Amino acid sequence: MYAVSMSSRVYHLLYASDAYTLCGFKVLDLKMSDTNKPARLHQVPTIPSNRSLCKQCEKMAERRTRARSPLMQMIDKPEELNGHTG
Fold first, then answer.
1. How many domains does the chain have?
2. Alpha helices per DSSP H over the chain
3. Is the N or the C terminus of the chain less surrounded, counting Cβ atoms within 10 Å?
4. Distances (CA, A) of 74 to 4, 61, 62, 69
5. Which of 9, 4, 2, 13 is nearest to 65 (CA)?
6. Which residues lie across from 3 on neighbouring strands?
7. Nearest by Cα to 2 from 59, 66, 49, 68
8. Residue 42 sits in which domain range?
């Protein structure tokens, strides 16, 4: 899921809970929000083709991917590759 607002040309990535964007904005449930108010972020099921990804969400997604990658963990801690723990 993704989040958009009527007042912005960007889309946001959501945490698994779908309550917040990766950059920290609260996303309102469509059933409870008034989508006519331009500043309200609401969920959409697909990436909007006419919008660009929020730069902060992009940075956070890269950090999350890097933190989960076993290869990056090995690069960040090469001493563990040789059995040395410090």
1. 1
2. 55-68, 70-76
3. C
4. 36, 20, 17, 9
5. 13
6. 12, 43
7. 49
8. 2-82
The mean pLDDT of the chain is 78
HSE (CB half, 13 Å, CA atoms) of 40? 13
State the pLDDT at residue 79.
53
Q: Residue 40: how many CB atoms within 10 A of its CB?
A: 18
Distance CA 44, CA 41 (A): 10
Per-residue model confidence (pLDDT) at position 83: 54
Q: Which residues of the chain have pLDDT under 70?
A: 30-39, 69-86
DSSP state letter for 35:
T
Distance (Å, whole) CA 86 – CA 84: 6
pLDDT of residue 67: 75
Helix (H, G, I), strand (E, B) or coil at 53: strand
Phi–psi pair at 73, nearest 5 degrees: -65, -40
